Amino acid sequence: MKDIKLSVVLAVFNEEKNLARCLESVKSLADEIVIVDGQSTDQTPAIAGKFKARVISTPNLPNFHVMKNMAIDAAKGDWILQLDADEPVTPELATEIQKVISSPDALDGYWVPRKNYFLGRFLTKGGQYPDHTLRLYRRGKGRLPAQSVHEQATVDGQVGFLTHDLLHYGTPDFENYLLRFNRYTSLTATQMAADGVPLNTFSFLKYLLVKPISIFFSIYFRHLGLVDGFPGFVFALYSGLHYPVAYIKHWQKTKHPA
């Protein structure tokens, strides 16, 4: 049996629009592809089959990171590259990964620079590039905490940085962005409830005024999101609005539970 050097792992749900592009970008890099599928109702399983991926079916979970950990645990490779379906690997990054995991001096994990596509362009400022994400690590060394929406993997050992880009098409249009915005603010509201965030004047001012204003100014002015034109403004605006919307959902669930 061929040794499995690199496992590419994904968790997916109804990703027929994105999955083929992602898997095509790693088919010559991966020794195996492991996909945990949240019982997709579109062509996602069929697309995974065309790339000879090992598919594990499970009920779709609100915290997607739990499903990602299932894929990580099922991998057999010496190394794991964890991707989302909307993240194709550039040829330059694929070459760099192959070189790194073949080196006797390789570390235990690597941060990868990511380019985020938003409203028709890749963002270059606003803290969105390079959007480093910890995705490559030795099997048994890396795992997701599965506690919050935008968390990073944790790696037991020494980590370094790769130089070539991972592309991210998470929000190809504004409608898609709003769907994700709604899902993520709901998860943050749930986390607020779990953390016991109080509903009082102080928290009202913090989450509805202070945090959104400070986040907008940080992204748009301090980190020069204004350089990205109108998409940069919209990104900064809605990044700031994340916490007021989550707080309102938290208030609604607490005061008026369904």
Describe this structure in words.
With 258 residues, the chain is an alpha/beta fold. The protein folds into two domains: 6-170, Spore Coat Polysaccharide Biosynthesis Protein SpsA, Chain A, CATH 3.90.550; 174-255, no CATH class. It is 42% helix and 20% strand. The protein contains seven helices and twelve strands. The protein has a seven-stranded mixed beta sheet, with helices on both faces. Strands 7-6-12 form a three-stranded mixed beta sheet. The longest helix has 27 residues, at 229-255. The N and C termini lie far apart (54 Å). The mean pLDDT is 95.
Task: Tell me what portion of residues adopts beta-strand conformation.
Answer: 15-25%
Please count the beta strands (DSSP E, at least 2 residues each). Answer: 12
Q: By helix and strand content, what is the structural category? A: alpha/beta
CATH architectural category of the largest domain: Alpha-Beta Complex
> What spatial form do the alpha-carbon principal axes imply?
globular
Q: What is the terminal-to-terminal distance?
A: 54 Å
Overall radius of gyration? 19 Å
**What average pLDDT do the residues reach?**
95
Number of helices: 7
How are helices and strands ordered from N to C? EHEHEHEHEEEEEEEEHHH
CATH topology of the largest domain: Spore Coat Polysaccharide Biosynthesis Protein SpsA, Chain A
